[in-house]
Structures are given as structure tokens and as C-alpha cells.
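Subject: for your reference before the review

Hello V.,

The reviewers asked for a structural picture of the protein, and I figured it would be easier to keep everything in one thread rather than splitting it across files. Below is the amino acid sequence we used in the manuscript, unchanged from the supplementary table.
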Amino acid sequence: MWISKFDRAKKLKQNLEKELAFYFASEPYRIGTKTDPQSKRLICYITKADDIPEEISLITGDVIQNLRSSLDHLAYKLFTPGPGNGTDGRNVYFPILDNLAQYERDKGRKTEGLEQVAKDLIDTIKPYREGNEILWKIHKLNNIDKHRLLVTVGSSFGSLDLGAHMIASMREAFPEQNIPSVSAFFKPEDNLFPLKVGDELLIDGPNAKPNPEMKFKFEILLNEADIVEGEPLTEALQSMIDEVELLFPKFQPLIT
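And here is what came back from the structure prediction:
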């Protein structure tokens, strides 16, 4: 069952990537230009920023929930060959706590009935924030998702093509030269999360002209205060999947 839950998480992430592709294919963002009346600087800004579909947040929560469940199912699988200590395994969980002190205090209750070798192996994983932050994020985000949608519904300014900007300036300075187009994307210092209509993406020089070759990229971020601070959604989920997948071979010899 623990493998099934993990495989389900990976499949759901694939579904999420399709939803994200559909969303971006709908051209949810539109860029306009305006000139500041005082400085005469050209400003590129957001004129359209569609809401991110709720389905994206729902699937994100399902990915995380299945990852957390796979760990709890793994703990129960470790309980099956264990001494039991008169317990039925209903209170067995893969212990993930906020810090080492909480872990040392609560791990015994969550792993009661497991063989000592299994408990010792879990200790080596260091499943608390300062020991394994990715597992801790899975645990905390899953707890939030039980009560409300995750705050994944935020887009951000990912990068802009300064290469197109520089090439346009060079072509204007050297009109007789055949200067090819070159893309060079740079991440802004402020990603403007959450992105909204009116946000200014670029303030160009005085009397600059709109550049149709200028491209802007946008991202969907996973953001939960004090847990995940604006990480690209698919990258954050993949790091969680990778971390859980690395654990399974360590416990395989203990599972009959």
C-alpha cells in the first residue's frame, strides 16, 4: 500500500503539470506599456492576470497528502513484523515533528510496537525541521490541506528577456549592422508575488520604444508562511517526491 500511495503522488504530479500547461496555454497574462508623464520612461506592466484554477491547488494538496500517507503506510508495514507490545498498530505513524526536542518526546508513542532496528533507522532520517526540512514541509503542508486549500494560488514574475532589450538598443545604435536576435532571461529581484493587474515589470529609459520581442516568463509558486516561502510549485513537489523515494530502499530490508 505504501508504494501505491507513492506512485499515486507521482501520477498526480503529472496531472498537475498538464493543468499548469493548460493554464499557461490560455495566455492568462497580458503585458501593456505606458509612458510616465514626468520622467518619460517607458513602463511595461500587467494588464491581465487571470486567477489560477482551484484545481491546481486541489491537486497540489493531493500530491502532498499521498506522500505523507505513503510514509505512514510504511511505518505500519514496519509494525507488522515487529513485537507489537500488545498494540494493534492503529496509532502507528511515521514520526515527523517540528524540532528534535519534540521528536524525542513523541517518537515513542508514534512508533510503539516497531522493532528497535526500525526505530533506530527512523532516527537516522532525522524527521524534524532542522534534520530533514523537506519531510517536515510535507508534514506541515499536509496538515494545512486537511483544513483549507494550500496557498499555491499565486503567480509570480519569473524572468524577463534582457537579451531582446540589449539587442534592440544595439540595432538602434548600429542600424547598418545585421545583429541577430538573442535571448537572455534574468530573474528580477522582486518576483511581485502574488502577481496582479497594474504590477510594473520593467521601467525602461526615457523615450524608449515598446519592444515586441521582449518576453516575460511567469511561474506558479507554492507559498505558505513560515513553511514554504515562494518556491516554484513543480520544483517544490519534485523535491518532496525525490526525498520520499530515497527513503524506501533504506527500509526495504526490514519489510517482509
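For the response letter, the relevant points are probably these. The longest helix spans residues 54-79. The beta strands are 29-35, 41-49, 155-161, 185-186, 200-206, 216-224, 228-232.

Happy to draft the paragraph if you're swamped.

O.
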